[in-house]
Amino acid sequence: MRDYALTAFIFGSIPFILWRPWIGALMWVWIGLMNPHRLTWNFAFNMPFAQVVAIATLVGMLFSGEKFRIPWSPPVKLLFALVAWMSVSTYFAIDTTDAFPQWQKVMKIQFMTFIVMMLIADRKRLEALVWVAALSLAFYGVKGGIYTFTGGGSNQVLGPEGSFIEGNTEIGLALVMALPLVRVMQMSAQRRAVRWALGLAMLLTGLAILGTQSRGAFLGAAAMAIMLWIKSRKKAMLFVMLIAAVPALLVVMPDSWFTRMEGIGSYEQDRSAMGRLYAWEFAFRMAVKHPLVGGGFASFTPENYAVYAPDLTEAVNEKGAVADAHSVYFQVLGHHGFVGLAIFLALLAAMWQSAARVMRATRAREDLRWAYDTAAMSQVSLVGFMVAGAFLGLAYFDLLYTLLAIIAITESLVRRGHGTIPAVASTADAVGAAQQQPLRP
């Protein structure tokens, strides 16, 4: 029944996508983040719904009278550079045959990211994009939070099978990134009941993050919570909420959870933690041998370990399977070399700076409070990714690039509607500039 309902819903949306292609952009984000087909049990499990939606969206764009353009801000330009370098590194990959399928998968995500930025062209659509991205993952946050609570913290939260976020660390990072986006929705909600419902969703999502039992997600959540307080407009109220919520969440977790979290400081005795260190060293060694382009996609293999790090036998288990990169940074380094890593780091920095420019330009503008909140919470989400992502290989996860689109679109809307955004300066300078030199219409 679930298979038929989902199939009917997605195919039933096609006429609307052809009529309004931006609906297709939202559908693409929903399918890519939530993976609803992975919640079915029959024929729909492997249906190419994303491809169907993408084709319908592109056809709709061909027949639309709307003018489309890409918001070429610094993060978008760096994303284009990263995509280009991924193509170069794939061409020069150690094993092009194995690298090419992964390149195709990543290119589809990046291509549609540019399409999303072209189609989400006004504030209404942007708000819809934030809601879709946040709720797609808040679904697992609420579900996982209830699952953790009813199991006394002993139930491990996992993501949908066969998706980017299948593992506990992967779904943990996704929830860490999604929680600030839920906060954006809460701050913009007009009805008290909706605000309370979203607050409950945030609380359950926080519990679900703990329920993943992922130490990387725990560190990401801690950094995200600190940034959430720093970037909040109502710091006193949020501080009280955090002080009340954190003990309430931790009291649910069993002793085994605390024992596992204590392993963060004693990694030498932890096989999983040592496996990460071996994977990072392997990635570095491989990049040193191929400094410009790295090993290419799918290069973390037993054969390459034997060539570039034969002494790291602990990184290969008894079945011959090699540990993943276990870090977005070492993943990009191993796959695309030092040049690829430099572009990736510049991309993250540019996303932060872009959000900072929006915050500076809108800080003293009540009518642009929505843009300020969106940019601020995007920075919080980005911090969660950068911290939790240091411990798992999820560099090509859709949500990072959806977040980039949200930041780029927000900046573009403020620019087009309210003048030029000044360069980032100090907080005092920002407030003064906003008060003394209003943005030109």
**Count of domain modules:** 3
The H-and-E topology, N to C, reads as HHHHHHHHHHHHHHHHHH
Low-pLDDT runs = 424-441
Strand content: under 5%
**Biggest sheet record:** none
Helix content: over 70%
Mean pLDDT level? 86
Radius of gyration: 22 Å
Explain this structure:
- The protein starts with a helix and ends in a 5-residue tail after the last helix.
- Residues 424-441 have low confidence and may be disordered.
- It has 3 domains: 1-67, no CATH class; 72-119 and 266-441, no CATH class; 123-265, no CATH class.
- It has helices at residues 2-12, 14-19, 21-34, 49-62, 74-91, 96-119, 123-150, 168-188, 192-211, 215-231, 235-250, 255-262, 271-289, 302-308, 328-362, 369-388, 398-418, 427-436.
- Helix content is 70%, strand content 0%.
- The protein has 18 helices and no strands.
- It has 441 residues and is an all-alpha fold.
- The radius of gyration is 22 Å and the shape is globular.
In short:
The chain is mainly α. It has helices at 2-12, 14-19, 21-34, 49-62, 74-91, 96-119, 123-150, 168-188, 192-211, 215-231, 235-250, 255-262, 271-289, 302-308, 328-362, 369-388, 398-418, 427-436. It has 3 domains: 1-67, no CATH class; 72-119 and 266-441, no CATH class; 123-265, no CATH class.
Q: Features of this protein?
A:
441 residues, mainly alpha, globular, disordered C terminus, 3 domains, 18 helices
Write the layout of secondary structure elements.
Layout: H1 2-12, H2 14-19, H3 21-34, H4 49-62, H5 74-91, H6 96-119, H7 123-150, H8 168-188, H9 192-211, H10 215-231, H11 235-250, H12 255-262, H13 271-289, H14 302-308, H15 328-362, H16 369-388, H17 398-418, H18 427-436
Helix pairs in contact: 3-4, 3-6, 3-7, 5-6, 5-15, 6-17, 7-8, 7-9, 7-17, 8-9, 8-10, 8-16, 10-11, 10-16, 13-15, 15-16, 15-17, 16-17
